[in-house]
Each structure stands twice: as structure tokens, then as C-alpha cells.
Specification:
103 residues, mainly alpha, 0% strand, globular
């Protein structure tokens, strides 16, 4: 009986103390891009510059939603072991640095 009285208060206080959505960490997104993405993209472009994949004229990424899907696909297909918040950080960094889509 005590647990049923305690649980709703605990749940409510936990929800109120935790941020609903953490702001993306751009520094983390950049670090992940440099550590896990750049070399593969440099190889794909054939020019040794991993950033070129983001700035090419025939980019497949046309919106933030596309960017999220591409980052998630790379994470899954290449087994990068990124957490969802890491994916969000990478998306935020790439969008700010290269794409500049409106959120």
C-alpha cells in the first residue's frame, strides 16, 4: 500500500526534474563526425576530403528529416554504436555546419 502512494509522487518528481529534450551537443556531434564519419566519406568522394560529401551538388539530403534518416542509416548499417542522443548531436552539427535547414 505504501508503494502505491509513493510511486506516483516518485514518477512525477522524476519527470519534473529530468529535461524533456536535451539541447544537442554540437561539440559531441563534431567529434563523432571526425572520429566515425570523415574517413569513410573521404574514401567515398575519392578526393580525401570527407566534408565534400555534405557539400556536393547532387546531395541526397534535402531536409532535416532526410539528414536524420541518413545519420540513422549510417549508424545502423556501419554499426557505429551511436546512442540516439549522439545521432541527434551529429544531425545538429551537420545541419549547422553544412546544410543550414530550418528546424
Amino acid at each position: 500500500m505504501l508503494l502505491t502512494r509513493f510511486l506516483p509522487a516518485f514518477t512525477l518528481s522524476t519527470l519534473l526534474s529530468a529535461p524533456a529534450f536535451a539541447a544537442p551537443d554540437l561539440a559531441n556531434g563534431k567529434a563523432i563526425d571526425q572520429q566515425k564519419c570523415y574517413a569513410c566519406h573521404a574514401k567515398k568522394t575519392g578526393f580525401g576530403n570527407g566534408d565534400m560529401i555534405y557539400t556536393r551538388s547532387d546531395s541526397k539530403v534535402k531536409s532535416v528529416a532526410n539528414l536524420k534518416r541518413m545519420v540513422a542509416m549510417c549508424n545502423t548499417e556501419l554499426r557505429l554504436d551511436l546512442f540516439p542522443e549522439d545521432e541527434a548531436d551529429v544531425v545538429a552539427y551537420l545541419n549547422k555546419q553544412f546544410y543550414k535547414f530550418k528546424p
